[in-house]
Amino acid sequence: MCSPAHGGTIGHVERWILHVDMDAFYAAVEALDNPSLKGKPVIVGGLGPRGVVATASYEARRYGVRSAMPMAKARKLCPHGIFLPPRFERYAEVAEVIRGILHEYTPLVEPISLDEAFLDLTGTERLHGPPERVAREIHRRIPNETGLSCSVGLGPNKLVAKIASDRAKPGGLLVVHPEEVQGFLDPLPVEALWGIGPKSTARLAQFGIRTVRDLRSVELEHLCSWFGPRTGEHLWRVARGIDDSPVVPSREAKSLSQERTFPRDLFDPEEIRAEIRSLALNVAERLRSHGLLAREVRIKVRWSDFSTHTRQLRLPEPTDHALLIAEAALSLLSRLENRGIGIRLLGVGVGELVPARFRPLHLFARDDLSQTILRLRERFGEDALRLGPGG
Hints:
By secondary structure, this protein is α+β, with helices and mostly antiparallel strands. It folds into 4 domains: about 15-25 and about 90-180, Reverse transcriptase/Diguanylate cyclase domain (Alpha-Beta Plaits, 2-Layer Sandwich); about 25-85, MutS, DNA mismatch repair protein, domain I (3-Layer(aba) Sandwich), CATH 3.40.1170.60; about 190-240, 5' to 3' exonuclease, C-terminal subdomain (DNA polymerase, domain 1); about 255-380, 2-Layer Sandwich (Dna Ligase, domain 1), CATH 3.30.1490.100. It is built from 15 helices and 12 strands. It has helices at about 25-35, 60, 70-75, 90-105, 125-130, 130-145, 160-170, 180-185, 200-205, 210-215, 220-225, 230-240, 270-290, 320-335, 365-380; strands at about 15-20, 40-45, 55, 80-85, 110-115, 115-120, 150-155, 175, 255-265, 290-305, 310-320, 345-355. Strands 5-6-1-7-8 form a 5-stranded mixed β-sheet. It has a 4-stranded antiparallel β-sheet with strand order 9-12-10-11. Strands 3-2-4 form a 3-stranded mixed β-sheet. Helix 4 (about 90-105) packs antiparallel against helix 6, helix 11 packs across helix 12 (about 230-240) and helix 13 packs antiparallel against helix 14.
């Protein structure tokens, strides 16, 4: 049966959710640190032949450059652009300053990525005044205290707040009151709603549905028959601006992974094994920095024909030991048949993560050796130390 599930209300308290989205964040930080880049088409991402765009300044976007676009295409669209590799440590440093500002207004801050977050301002009026005032204050403070532009949306739920901040870009502030939600959403294209990607947009267009107003006019039963009960109900709800999802202030990592796309296909077995070891060490470093242990190790291999295979195994006990993770990853690699074609991407990941409240002692793998390896790599760089064939 297909029927809408209405969420509850928070008593008589009006719900207010704020969405803060930094504008072209990585490129903006680069221009902040190097003022000569201001007003220029800055493109941040992988600079190799198979790299992708992470962020493009608005000057670069005028030429059609977009996030997740292959860097080779970005260079063709904007040959005079300034292409830079990402500096994630610096971006995280700036993001921490921004997050500190947000936490002054509510503990309910949900970071979505380094450059955007939701805040639940419901019931904070006595401390900070009306949510609209808080929205204006945050919108003013972030540029004043960081030198970076942000877009802010305020609405009765996460869906509306996110769409509002998108519509306010770049650098704007948009408030949508509960009684304004339908009038705000109706004229928008359906792809502005959550969960409606290119395929769903094309399918809806086959039924003559192009705007939110068009979608809202369709009976729930029809949507369920076209898309199935789950998706049909989702479309029915978002077309009416219904979203009961909470702001979750902290997210425990469920997995960590590291991937590498190579500028040339790899054929040599020992070179492939060396890359797996290097990726395993990177993952172990991230586990240590997050204070986590992993019970599952997985690998990902993408061949030159773009076919992708994954393998995983469960460890007898959780670990962050670099050598054990590398050994498990190599074991998984050995399970894949040699297809006689090159490899374009390798990945190593870990899952079933738990806090590192204690670290198991391993009979055949000394923990001090793992810590020494990671400390040397942290101090002298990833290439300072690599695991040999026996490690």
